[in-house]
Amino acid sequence: MTTEPEQPPTAPDPTSATTTGPGAAPERADRPGVDLEPLVTAADLEELHRDVLSPSFPPEELESLESLVEGCAQGGTRALGVRRDGRVVAGAVAAGSGTPGEAMLLVYLAIAPGQRGGGIGGALLDAAVQTWVAESSPGLLLAEVEHPAHHEASEAHGDPAARLRFYARHGARLLAVPYFQPGLGATAARVPALLLTTLHVAPEVVVEGPLDAPTAVDAGPLRDFLTSYLVGSEGSLRDDADTRALLDAVGGPSVALVDPSDLASVPVGMAWAAAGAHVPEGDGA
Fold it and tell me: What ranges does the record give for the region Disordered, renumbered to this chain (predicted)?
């Protein structure tokens, strides 16, 4: 799924991000610039889904309310929200096992229409990352961002180029893998040409480069996460060219991390779909 960057209040906020998360949220997390609270009740999650997530993401990137509520109840998904005048106006949703050292994914980061701008997106992102890192000690905290060369900007869902700049300002680096979003169901379409970024890299998974700017990370936590994500979303691990390419990219001991300014060096997942081509017969996704 994806994320929205910060823009003036009249424009779509690029802070929307997508995916599903670990353990229970903290009782409360107050950070400079934003006041977060866990969203755990069905009523709070319905408000988040209806007023914040639904206007921010296209249908193929938005999980159902039922799935969101179930994931939070089971502890595989966690949601944090920001309230204004008693209403949930922004939220962040993460997914993962919650086991220290494993990977988590920022599934959604979004702000309700009419509330965007003024720095709330950046404050929300920083506070959510700090909260989840302190709570779960993940090896990697990841986010999905649309590749700006393959996804067009829209008034409803924001500008992928601005979104990537937003995440880069907050320290994101790109994993050199041909990434796509798994389909949200066994028969649902995948979202091609996404970038998988890191928002947090724990020292123990750094393979090359300085700890504050690694150039390669341990492939193990990433490989485990991607396998689990594909099976959990699509019901099985498909044997097709796109799945094989993605898993082959994390099949070695390490995976390169790339600065967002070097976007051309990152392989494009499902490039044929992003270009509007047809799937080769017998090898479809």
Answer: 1-37
Q: Are residues 110 and 167 in the same domain?
A: no
Q: What whole-number distance in Å separates Cα of residue 13 and Cα of residue 113?
A: 8
pTM for the model = 0.85
For residue 13, the model assigns a pLDDT of: 42
Query: Residue 60: pLDDT band by 50, 70, 90 thresholds?
Result: confident
Q: Where are the alpha helices (DSSP H) in 145-249?
A: 160-169, 219-234, 241-249
Q: How far apart are CA 6 and CA 8, in angstroms?
A: 7
- CA 3/CA 39 separation, integer angstroms: 19
Q: Residue 7: CB partners within 8 Å, gap ≥ 6?
A: 13, 14, 116, 117, 158, 159, 162
Q: Which residue has the tokens 């993605």?
A: 246
Whether the Cβ atoms of residue 88 and residue 51 lie closer than 8 Å to each other? yes
Provide the domain count of the chain. 2
**Helix (H) and strand (E) counts for the chain?**
7, 11
pLDDT tens per residue, range 149-175 = 999 998 777 899 999 999 999 999 999
The domain of 44 spans 33-138
* Pair (118, 147) in one structural domain: no
> Which of 25, 32, 33, 124 lies closest to 71, judged by CA?
25
Which helix (H) or strand (E) segment holds residue 103: the answer is strand 103-111
Task: Say if 156 falls within a structural domain.
Answer: yes
